[in-house]
Amino acid sequence: MNQATGNLRKVLRCEGLAILILSALAFTYSETSWILFALLFLAPDLSLIGYLLGSKAGAMSYNATHSIIGPTICIGVSILTDHHTQMAIGLIWSAHIGFDRSLGYGLKYTKGFKHTHLGKIGK
Fold it and tell me: Does residue 101 form part of some domain?
């Protein structure tokens, strides 16, 4: 199982922090209520319910909502369609992912919740 260690892990966590900060800054220009931000910020973590079905289902559901692909598509489509609420949702979603990554919560391996591409949680 490949995972980031040492300085590489620190760089990846700093990237997560940068994503969080940039997403939050961009959100300020969306003219959307910060109440929506607060309400939806932890929504991607509902995917943790997948772990009730086992580590494979949990990893799949977690990774589906914690890959940067989803919010990138959401933001991209919102630019093409000029849909401001969709832009705000994409920014909230990417901010959440950045927050998680900055804390060391990476994409999950099926071995268990603590095994991520950023290394084992708690190490």
Answer: yes
